[in-house]
Amino acid sequence: MGKRGFRLGVSLYLGVIMLLVLVLVLVSVAFLTLAERKILGAMQLRVGPGTVGFFGILQPFADGLKLLLKETVLPRSSNGILFISAPILSFSLSLLPWSVITFNLFHSIADIGLGVLFILVVSSLNVYGIVLAGWSSNSKFAFIGAVRAAAQMISYELSVGLILIIIGVCAGSLNLSDIVLAQKHLFNIVTFFPLFLIFFISILAETNRTPFDLPEAEAELVAGYNVEYSSMIFALFFLAEYSNIIVMSAFAVILFIGGWLPVFGLSFIPGALWFGVKTSFVLFCFVWVRATFPRYRYDQLMYLGWKVFLPITTTFLIFVYAVFAVVL
Asked: Which of 5, 228, 298, 321 would give a disulfide with 137, using CB separation of 3.0 to 4.6 Å?
C-alpha cells in the first residue's frame, strides 16, 4: 500500500502540474493573440480589437466562444478518424515541450539531461499532425499545404540541429539549466549573434509564421492544410500554432539570452520575471516580422534553408570543433 500510495500521489501531483501548465498555456495563447492584433494595428495604422471588454481584453474569449458554438463539419470524403485525430495530435505535441522548459533554476516539471534533444524531437513530430490533416481532408489544397509544411520542417530542422550541437558543445551539456548557467558571464547572443539570427528565422519557418507561412498561403491554397476544418477542431490547430510560438521563443531565450539570468546586474528582480520579459521580447519580434515583411516564394524559402543557412551553420560547427581541438 505504501508504494501504491506513493505512486498515486506522484501521479496526482504530475496531473495537477500538467493541468496548471495547460491553463497557463491557454491563457498565454489567448492574450498573445490579443497583443498581436494590437501591435499589428499600431504598426499598420489601423484599429485593433477594442470593443469587447475594456481595451478589447475580452476579445480572445469572445473568439473562443464563437469557435466553441460553431458546428463541426466533417467533409464527406475525408477519413473521419484521422481528420479528428490530427488537430488533437498537434495540440498535444505542442504542450509536451513545456515539461522541460526551465523558468528558473528550480522551476521545471522535468529537468532532464537531454532537454535540448527532447524539444528538438517533439518539434519535429509536430509536422505529423499537419500531414495527417492534409491527407485525411481528401483535398488537393490541404494536401499541398501539408507537403509544404513537411518539406519546410526538414529544411530548417537541419540548421536548427547544427546550432543546438554548437550550443551544447560550448556549454558542455544538453541540459537546459546547464546551458543557462553557462551564460553567467556572457550571453550566447553576444558570442553567436549570427547563429541567433539564423535560429530565429528558422523557428519562424518551423512555426509557419510570416514571411514563411507557405503551408497556409491563402492566396494559392485558400488556407492550406486546415482549409476543411471548422469549430473547435480548427481551434486546436490555432492553439497548437501559438503554443509552439511561445515555447520556441522560450527555447530561444534559454539558448541565447540567458534564460532566467538577470540583465545589467539587476539580480533583485526574480528570475522567472526576467524569463518572462525576455520571452515577451522574442514574441514581439515574431509580431514585428509579421507586420513588416511580405511572404516569401516557396523556392526562396528552400534556397534560404539549403543554400544559405545550412552552409553557414556547418562552417560554424567545424570552426567551433577546430577551436576546441586547438585549445584542449
From this structure: 228
